[in-house]
């Protein structure tokens, strides 16, 4: 694991022990250098293979979530024989692999955004399953101002936001505040900074307490059906629902729900 990334499981109770917090710590801007991306991939892989982990929280140290790609690192590679082209392509593919690792991860990944998320940092937020932001957080894809198309963030934004909202961010390069990010669909909740970690822990613990296989299937199926045509998606959903009904978790859950329903009806 790289020194720029840390991971630890939360403290008691059991539901919180199942929440693993991944912290990007690459001050001052928490840029996504090759070492940082490698570190994030390593800890995500460890969480994937940890049977005790139910939910991953992706956070960052300090007052900045991430200002995106490490342009200083990229600039140094312009002295390479090919002008840095091979490095540029490899680092972009590494960033794409990180975003896909989040989407394909079997556990839900929640972004905890305390400050600025820019460029590839904004891409990470968009790739996460849920995102909770402090009121002080800001979001931006400034690539167009640098003469770049914002191709990496474009993929995540176009799949998580409305088309016109995604295009607005890509074409203007302007900063949006946390409440606008919520309106755009980039984040789920906006909270006062002092309550950010508490709210994230509450969400994560609630999800961690749910039946693990149902959560895994819900995430996997959500992304799978989103890539299908309408008829194929409903066929897939019907087959998955029928198969899931046979699981012991579903049998117990339905039995408990029917029991509660019966108790309510008896009391009316």
UniProtKB/TrEMBL annotation:
Q: Which residues form a coiled coil?
A: none
GO molecular function annotation: hydro-lyase activity
> According to the UniProt entry, which residue ranges have a biased composition of type Basic and acidic residues?
245-254
In which domain of life is the source organism classified? Answer: Bacteria
Task: Please give the residue ranges the record annotates as the region Disordered.
Answer: 245-268
Mind listing the GO biological process terms from this record? fatty acid metabolic process
- Check the record and name the Pfam families matching this protein: ECH_1
Q: Which UniProt keywords apply?
A: Fatty acid metabolism, Lipid metabolism, Transit peptide
Q: Summarize the protein's role.
A: May play a role in fatty acid biosynthesis and insulin sensitivity.
Per the record, the similarity remark reads: Belongs to the enoyl-CoA hydratase/isomerase family.
Any idea what this protein is called?
Enoyl-CoA hydratase domain-containing protein 3, mitochondrial
Organism of origin is Plantimonas leprariae
Q: What is the lineage of its organism?
A: Bacteria, Pseudomonadati, Pseudomonadota, Alphaproteobacteria, Hyphomicrobiales
């Amino acid at each position: 694991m790289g020194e720029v990334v840390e991971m630890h499981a939360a403290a008691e109770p059991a539901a919180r022990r199942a929440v693993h917090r991944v912290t990007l710590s690459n001050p001052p801007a928490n840029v996504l250098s090759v070492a940082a991306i490698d570190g994030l991939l390593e800890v995500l892989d460890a969480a994937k293979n940890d049977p005790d982990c139910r939910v991953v929280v992706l956070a960052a140290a300090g007052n900045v979530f991430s200002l995106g790609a490490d342009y200083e690192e990229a600039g140094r590679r312009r002295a390479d024989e090919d002008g840095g082209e091979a490095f540029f392509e490899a680092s972009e593919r590494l960033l794409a692999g990180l975003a896909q690792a989040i989407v394909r991860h079997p556990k839900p990944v929640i972004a905890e955004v305390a400050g600025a998320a820019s460029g590839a940092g904004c891409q990470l937020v968009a790739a996460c399953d849920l995102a909770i932001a402090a009121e002080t957080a800001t979001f931006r894809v400034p690539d167009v101002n640098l003469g770049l198309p914002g191709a990496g963030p474009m993929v995540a934004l176009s799949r998580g936001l409305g088309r016109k909202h995604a295009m607005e961010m890509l074409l203007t390069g302007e900063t949006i505040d946390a409440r606008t990010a919520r309106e755009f669909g980039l984040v789920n909740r906006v909270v006062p900074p002092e309550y950010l970690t508490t709210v994230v822990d509450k969400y994560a613990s609630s999800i961690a307490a749910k039946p693990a296989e149902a959560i895994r299937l819900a995430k996997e199926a959500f992304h799978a059906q989103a890539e299908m045509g309408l008829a194929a998606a409903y066929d897939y959903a019907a087959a998955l629902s029928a198969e899931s009904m046979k699981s012991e978790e579903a049998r117990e859950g339905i039995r408990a729900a029917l029991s509660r329903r019966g108790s309510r009806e008896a009391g009316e």
